[in-house]
């Protein structure tokens, strides 16, 4: 399909700046200061009678600042990611972060003024703002839940020594945990991340001991961590429900995600109803592992792995070709990442782990970082990150404020891109062991991102009510075990130490109800994929239009325009139907390959 060959390489940041001491970078820093100082002079002009022309000038000025700031910050961040051990990159990043915080503080008066403005005035000014409208609307979204200035000030001040201090304390307590695990006759002292590597290993005893050690340590502090949680939950209700008048604790998060309460409830109900699907999968997985019944310890146990690897060249061709088969435009955009040398693909000492796609502004092609090692999952990761880049590029006609979609839609193109790739590999792979690995990977991943997270959110919803009614830490642990029993049924044997799992999840402490966004994003894409399979060609323009909208409109409206009714349980069920398809394919494979 192309004469290009793809080789593992670092990226080039030349489209940003030639180097850290380039005159252009110094000029950009100078320019940023001038722009911000200029913006501050608008402060006196902001009032309810400002003309629409002046208002647009203010918005464009802020947009200009954002462009320059993202370019500088992006350079610092990407340079650091490429070599995290480089001291000058470290200090430049820290310096830039400080500068960005300054810029934010000095320009904050605009959004405060804008949020405070009366509806009629805001409507007048918003009428002709075109692409900026949704961004402006989002800033005002919290107005009905905003208190008077002195009240907001008091909350801010008291949060520093209140909820924020409790979160810091939680981190301080849990980050110093040391986990001890005997591996090959030697007792290792491990961090949590290092310990969790062992729950994915082949030795069943090692997996069990790793989990037992995890919850032995968390369980020792369980009563204290649980008390921290109770207090955070009370604080959340006092503030969000009693003071800010949200209808329920979860409603405050829903507004942040710009999702209607009913949609989130429907999503969680459909997840709850599909618990039996993963139970069926866990029964199948037990058979593959030669076990009578899976223990909770064995959820992530590996089924034997094939030795198949993919050269980078083949990986790049395969990803681009699977994109091309969906739509040539998608492949063309993805290829830009390679052609413009915006992809850091090789494994190097000091380079940041994992993978990401960084979008800086609509006029810059995004940068992608992966650590390519040739496994099937590395090919899928490449497709995932390139999908993110394609999403940004499809939306590059928008402003810097509206290019990137908000959280519920942020994983759409990435996960969809991964689906295109995996589907193609499955269709063309004749080696049953490779197909098996791909299918197990898909189902394991969707378990972790959809079902597990949905059950966390269900627990949170219940815990917020129980704590309101005065539940003790032990009663919360009991409720958590009930939640696990519902999730796993009789397919998975639970052991008692999992009663402390909830105290070990930072998200539910720090960002209440954040976790359902994972379930939303992933299930949304599976449902979309289901529609694509059912409708073929006619699906494509609607999907591309959805991506092209970026973050210029509320998620539900974008989805509705794309013909998707997220209020309907049947839509979400479509996502589980895809997973059921994978499980059925696995069930057809002869065990003991
Ligand atoms: Zn992603």
Tell me the Rg in angstroms.
Answer: 25 Å
Distance between the termini: 35 Å
Q: Name the strands of the widest sheet in spatial order.
A: 4-6-5
**Beta-strand level of the residues, as a percent range?**
under 5%
- Categorize the overall geometry: globular
Q: What does the main sheet amount to? A: 3 strands, mixed
What would a concise description of this structure say?
The protein is mostly helical and 593 residues long. The protein contains 24 helices and seven strands.
Search tags:
593 residues, mainly alpha, 3-stranded mixed β-sheet, two-stranded antiparallel sheet, 24 helices, 7 strands, 64% helix, globular, binds zinc ion
Topology diagram in text:
Blueprint lengths: L22 H18 L11 H31 L4 H30 L2 H8 L6 H8 L8 H13 L1 H13 L3 E5 L2 E5 L1 H5 L7 H17 L1 H22 L5 H8 L4 H13 L1 H14 L5 E2 L16 H15 L1 H12 L3 E2 L11 E3 L8 E3 L6 H19 L17 H17 L3 H37 L4 H16 L3 E2 L12 H5 L5 H20 L3 H10 L6 H7 L7 H20 L5
Parallel strand pairs: 3-7, 4-6
Antiparallel strand pairs: 1-2, 5-6
The chain binds zinc ion (ZN).
How would you describe what is shown here?
The protein has 593 residues and is mainly alpha-helical. Helix content is 64%, strand content 4%. The chain contains 24 helices and 7 strands. The strands form 3 sheets. The protein has a 3-stranded mixed sheet with strand order 4-6-5, sandwiched between helices. α10 packs across α18, α15 crosses α16 and α18 packs antiparallel against α19. The radius of gyration is 25 Å and the shape is globular. 37% of the residues are buried. The structure holds zinc ion. The site of zinc ion has 4 residues, from α16.
